[in-house]
Amino acid sequence: MNREAARKKAQELVSQMTVEEKASQLRYDAPAIRRLNIPAYNWWNEGLHGVARAGQATVFPQAIGLGATFDPDLLYEMADVVATEGRAKYNAYSAKEDRDIYKGLTFWSPNVNIFRDPRWGRGHETYGEDPYLTKCLGVSFVKGLQGQGETMKAAACAKHFAVHSGPEALRHEFDAEVSKKDMEETYLPAFEGLVKEADVEAVMGAYNRTNGEPCCASPSLQKILREKWGFQGHFVSDCWAIRDFHENHMVTNTAQESAALAINNGCDLNCGNTYLHILKAYHNGLVSEKVITEAAVRLFTTRYMLGLFGESEYDSIPYTEVESPAHLALAEHAAEESFVLLKNNGILPLKKENLKTVGVIGPNADSRKALIGNYHGTASRYVTVLEGIQDYLGEDVRVLTSAGCDLYRDKTEALAFTQDRLAEAKIVADNSDVVILCVGLDETLEGEEGDTGNSYASGDKETLELPKVQRELMEAMAESGKPVILCLMAGSDIDMSYAAEHFDAVMVLWYPGAQGGKAAAKVLFGETSPSGKLPVTFYESLEELPDFTDYSMKGRTYRYLEGKAQFPFGYGLTYSHVEVTAAKVVITEDGPAVEAEVENKGTFDTREVVQVYMKNLDSPYAVKNPELAAFTGVFLKAGEKKTVTLPLSSRAFTVVDEDGVRKEDGNRFAIYVGCSQPDERSIELTGVRPVEIVYQREEAKV
Length: 702
Prior knowledge:
Layout: H1 3-14, H2 19-24, E1 29-30, E2 41-42, H3 63-69, H4 72-95, H5 131-146, E3 157-161, E4 175-176, H6 180-187, H7 189-198, E5 202-205, E6 209-210, E7 213-214, H8 219-228, E8 234-236, H9 243-247, H10 255-264, H11 278-283, H12 289-305, H13 325-338, E9 340-344, E10 357-361, H14 369-372, H15 385-393, E11 398-402, H16 422-430, E12 434-440, H17 468-478, E13 484-489, H18 497-502, E14 505-508, H19 516-524, H20 557-560, E15 578-588, E16 591-600, E17 606-616, E18 627-636, E19 641-647, E20 654-656, E21 662-664, E22 668-674, H21 680-686, E23 691-696
Parallel strand pairs: 3-5, 4-6, 5-8, 10-11, 10-12, 12-13, 13-14
Antiparallel strand pairs: 1-2, 6-7, 9-14, 15-16, 16-19, 17-18, 17-22, 20-21, 22-23
């Protein structure tokens, strides 16, 4: 059902309700209205990388790993699986009148905030630090989740609108002060793309204030969202964010004032309980019935579009779709595409026939938590890295293992001496031909405030270094004299300088999902070549970054970086050697595009990501460094050449001035085409310089 028809039906239904009934429907746990045959509905569901918190489901790699794939088609397929499994569950649950939390069809995903600072604990819920990459992947996710059918398959939600990326400890009282330029250039583009290109059904406000206004009651943000972009869906608060108005932000004095402020400024749905005070606010003249009615109409429009008051083409999706073989295969494929190879001295891929004993060591080697990130579902089977390698090698190669240390505590057994597993790790290394060392974090060390129970501040990281016990384990493995492959399982930038200097290979596995260990074994042993690219900058240190609470983009992310990255955004090796050998700008019916010749000069079949970066050479408002303007994955057999065409959007030719106005300004552009950024560090690491084109456009429009 299209929006116009759904809204008409919603208006008709809501017109039959009393003001009390309308108000009752603005809570996330909306009660039934039996006289109108309206069943209860719980709006709160999560689907960041698989249906979450609702029992059995396919668990895909965490969002940051999906970001590393640079693969919008994969995001579409994954989100379609989330919608399919969500429908399968909804159909089965509602048939049994189970309408509890996490059982609806309104998924509060994706998180398209910009991973501005590597300390932010929730950064792994995002697609990384680049607005264009985030927009492309987010648009695909929304389209895949909402579907192309007559009925909306599931409803997506762009969160957290609009300026939100830590610190977690301060989020309930924090005011993110942002310049107009940074707002338009960095913080808004992904949200705008999801609204305009994907027609996202919902937008969620953030906990914090932005430039003084609480995000869940911001006239400025609502004006951008509804008037400038034409958003037609519903707006939801983050959970208990409206309570923060009077308890933490101190912009109101009472709960009824907070409820009034939110609903009068466009917040239709309250995740929390502050809208229990809407009626009191109405009776005291703080809210009109017209405003309550409009919020209810928007919410019922969504429910009609989902086909919840009639038949839909998705009603027959059976429960057996949950964690089906095809879905598990896609999760495994997604993990394979997400791995980023940072260093390889030739040791990878490992050859099974050359090995008698493999040592799999580290606190994340056999950790299920290190597979799943946060906002995850429950898999019926988890394949850890250790298990994946054991299954892959079978009886042919002996696998020895040791945790080596705890994730961050100084011992694994309460009565033991400190570092009680270090000797075991050394013994395993002594008896192995090669060591696969699995270190990193999990959701207990980086995550959401309130969700974590760790020594770090509210889920944020205080340092880029691994916990001390893991660093000591790394040193012991470096001293073992055995070849070491380090596998990092984390959702953010971790200092890999020691690993890069001392180990034979370094690969980032992120939080790779329930099939992660299976995928890792296939990549480590060369059944598949890694092809992921870093969606975030790995910095040399935090010292080069501004204060965590400073929301200015100066010096942050690859676009504004002033120093040299440890490992740059867009960087990632394969087992082969792929180069862009030639590139030119061509004019198509849709405008300028880059035509690139790509050649696999190595001996290994591999996927590679061709990347186009652009720099305005004329405008004083140009972003400091060349920024991502186009990308595409391409699979090449050894020795194969292909020509790929990458369209350039009109936005790639614009700049943003200090007043936040996006415009064309200047005609000359440096365009770089390669498999990495054009920065000196990427060239140093890859040994390849992207093809550079200086492109002169016709006179820009004023």
